[in-house]
């Protein structure tokens, strides 16, 4: 019975204490979050550059196709 009372007292003490993250772990969490945010920014920049590159490639492809088509028509006219 005395053990049970002792355990209840310990539980009450634990419940009274605020839930706190140790300072070192808190610092590590903040550093990790900062790295994640940095990676997200880098990914967004890469995504924009990649999108611009794809648009440029499509534009070049269309120009090359038009050039091939116009040279094909010119050859047919001269033959």
From TrEMBL:
InterPro entries: PI/PC_transfer. It comes from Solanum tuberosum (Potato). It comes from the Eukaryota. This is Transporter.
């Amino acid at each position: 019975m005395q053990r049970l009372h002792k355990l209840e007292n310990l539980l009450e003490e634990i419940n009274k204490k605020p839930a706190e993250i140790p300072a070192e772990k808190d610092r590590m969490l903040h550093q990790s979050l900062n790295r994640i945010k940095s990676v997200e920014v880098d990914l967004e920049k890469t995504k924009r550059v990649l999108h611009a590159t794809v648009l440029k490639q499509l534009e070049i492809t269309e120009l090359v196709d038009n050039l091939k088509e116009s040279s094909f028509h010119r050859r047919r006219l001269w033959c």
